[in-house]
Amino acid sequence: MITIKDVLNSDVFKKYKILAGENGLSREVTTITVAEVPDAANWLRGGELVCTTAFFISNKDLEQKEWIESLILNGASALAIKTSRFLGVLPESIIECANSYKFPIIELDHEITWPVIIESFMDYLTNQRIKIMQLIEDVQRDLINLVLENNTIQTIVNKISALVENTIIIEDAKLNLIALGNVEGSLQPDLDSPLLKARINDAFRQKVIKSGFYKEIKSGAKKEHLEINLNVPEKKNVRNYMIPIFSNKTIYGFISLLESHRAYSSKDLIVLKNSSTAIALQLMKQYLNQQTYRKKNLALIEDIIHGRIHTQIVFEYDFLNINLTDPMIAILVDYVEPDHENNYFWERSEDLITIIIKKHLNKHFQQVIMGNNGSLFTILVSFKPNQVKHVPALVKQAMLTALKELDKQFGEDKFLIGIGGAFPQPEMTGKSFKQANTALSVVKKTSGRRGNLLLFEEIGIHRILSLIQDTAKIRDFCDDFLLKLKQYDEENENVLLNTLHEYLLCDCNIKKTAEKLFVHPNTITYRMKKIKQLIKHDLDIPEFKMAYLFALEAEDLLKQGVIDNKK
Fold first, then answer.
1. Which of 85, 422, 454, 561 could bond to 329 as cystine, CB 3.0-4.6 Å?
2. What is the pTM of this model?
3. How confident is the model at residue 318, as a pLDDT?
4. Would you tell me which CATH number, out of the four given (3.30.70.1430, 1.20.1050.10, 3.20.20.100, 3.40.50.300), belongs to the domain 297-458?
């Protein structure tokens, strides 16, 4: 891209003066033309540097403004004018109009002729285009070679940063930081610097997300760029130039050029735009590699929990110093994925979930093996046999901390977690996995009441239910206590079962039950009167109070299919 500023810095314009529209010098210019008739704007195609002596311009302010606006609205990039020939001083109406549209008006020396201007401009434009094509070819070749040589995304970003002599920032489609390149190459920028603090924070992220640029890209539109100024203490406004990384109608993220060292030029923007292909390719490779790694981990986990210790996958991991001799506790994490609004965004959810969970578990445990099948993540955490008593509580603490970060990143109530028991024998890992699965099944049903994380040892009634092998007997028990209430609800479209359940969970407190169900206490009193007429046992007797709660919990788990597979 060649801008008006580039042209003014060339030998084409040896003597010039900017009369108006100085804020528009970054406009792209593609050709030059002479306009010496009032309706010349109708012949513009866009991107022209328009040259004129303005001898035809009326001395009426309204007509002068209309003429300038006609050039702007028809795509002219700037106006070069010889004011001394006919116009004299540029009218204030034209200056105001040009400033409002950020449309540069440049005063030329009256002695220079149009043929000289046009010939010089076209020679300059041709030479610059050749240089740009060579620059594009060099940049793409160098970056693609880095990708083919299996260099990391950080190496590629550092290369781009060196080319533009400024900080480069790569973010995913949801504006999570992937890589940050410094001018000094492999040295990482100072993340505590005021500039980077102003750039890499949630306030900036939200500003972009709320912008029309981001919303249009999210809907599938191919927007070119977004330029945002950062307010940094003890510095002027620092520009951040951001472009989307597109490939095959998918947006992989964003690449930003931050003016950390010097003002960027049009050539820097060319480098930036032509780096996106290599970045997209590298991100795609990285995603496929990580996906393969996670599936391999999952295969290893399945072998461990099923006691298969002589398989090929276990043999391969033995050479990677993976310790399979210590006991392990199992964790299951289910990510309740939101409905995606479109297929344009490349999702890094699996990567981010893995990174966050491992980060918190690794603070307490040296070895964490983690794999996933879609939205279900399976984790095995190794520990020493003498730690067995403290491991469940430590794992719970780490996962609660991880859950807070996951909620902040993805939104609340998107994750459900079940944690199995800890056993001193490595061969008991399979049992821990089954317990984690039971805990996860229970937390799916009870997450609203008991939170989104559950240890198997904290299950209570549900743990008893999980031990009962005869499902038919559970169904008979539930019908014996609840059948009349179920029939009444079905016939009258009522909610007596749910009311009784909440009433018992709230320790038979009318007011608390009403608050839970968002109804008036009188409504609960009325329903409980009807319930007591239908059931055959007295709820004031603790034995029957527990029996009804047990039956209601079992009924819910039967509906969920959690205990329906028992024989």
1. 422
2. 0.58
3. 54
4. 3.30.70.1430
